[in-house]
Amino acid sequence: MPVPIGFKIADFGSEIGGLQNGAGHPIFKQVTIDWCEPKQWARDGGAPIDAAENSLGHVYAIVREHHKAKTRQNIAYIGISQKIETRFYIHPKAEEIRSLRGQAYLSIGNIAFGKWTHQKSVLKYINDIEHILIWAIDPDFNEKKMYSLPGFGQNGVRAWHIINTGHRFAGRMPREITYPWMILKPGRDRSLKKA
Asked: Do the domain assignments include residue 79?
């Protein structure tokens, strides 16, 4: 998608971390995702999940590379799991991607939540994060998540500051994502009085 012409970012009066609610808590919930180097996933082998660390949840990226592709490390799928060790027992989309020409790889993203995290809400949180990543990367995958904007489901909208560290996917993974933010198309400013 091209950058909207004539728009600018709204001035919220502070850096992301400085925006707080009435109780003094940050408005944007900060999480860090540390992506491991993609590991080759053989067609007849199990998912290479040894990079998964003990955490409340994971995101993962299935990556494809083949000689005629225009880009390296083409992210073909973004998914989530609370139990990464059992996630790939039955995964039709992963099987479909692995059956295509070329080589498939798997990268695990270990999520570090802040102290604000509530154990019972982790599934909602990682669903939000997955949805935002899908929209930010913008490949043609995870069709169901493309039908609505992130956070506009039954659980409401949360504000996120997602920091991606570790593997860079040849520059395809954004370093930081702030969601939601506001862009506006300014009108012509005629407020200055003529002398």
From this structure: yes
Whether 47 is in a domain gets the answer yes
Per the structure, the complete domain to which residue 118 belongs is given by 26-184
Residues 150 and 178 sit within 8 Å (Cβ to Cβ): no
Cis before residue 150, ω within 30 degrees of 0?
no
Does residue 88 lie in a domain region?
yes
Cβ–Cβ under 8 Å, residues 28 and 161: yes
The verdict on residue 195 lying in a domain is no
> pTM to 2 decimals?
0.86
Q: How many domains does the chain have?
A: 1
Angle at 68 between CA 133 and CA 132, to 5 degrees: 5
Angle at 148 between CA 150 and CA 145, to 5 degrees: 75
Mean pLDDT, residues 20-48: 89
Torsion angle in degrees (nearest 10) through CA of 87, 90, 96, 102: 60
| Residue range 168-184: mean pLDDT, rounded | 90
- Mind listing the pLDDT tens digit for each residue in 61-106? 999 887 666 667 789 899 999 888 889 898 998 999 898 888 999 9
**Amino acid residing at 5:** I
